[in-house]
Amino acid sequence: xxxxxxxxxxxxxxxxxxxxxxxxxxxxxxxxxxxxxxxxxxxxxxxxxxxxxxxxxxxxxxxxxxxxxxxxxxxxxxxxxxxxxxxxxxxxxxxxxxxxxxxxxxxxxxxxxxxxxxxxxxxxxxx
Length: 127
Prior knowledge:
Elements: H1 16-19, E1 38-41, H2 57-68, E2 71-72, H3 73-80, H4 84-97, E3 100-103, H5 114-126
Antiparallel strand pairs: 1-2, 1-3
């Protein structure tokens, strides 16, 4: 036995609370981050040039993911292989620093009603 008590398939051995410093809420408005909220990195935000000692490599991963296209919170969690709760806390930190912008989803009350959608479908079928 080589002294290792886990195998390579086990994945990372860092607990979620260690990634967030034991926090369950971010410094910013992470409590209002829906799973479908769109997150985009600000143009000047560079993962490597952060300069903030409180930032972790996971913060950099999130910035890199959001740099090209807006992603939902759920997509960021899936692509970064981090739990959604951890992603929300880290996004709160990035929001506080002004390195990401969040676009809230459209409220259901602002969406068109079923009757309008049916009229559109009927109009398209009539073409």
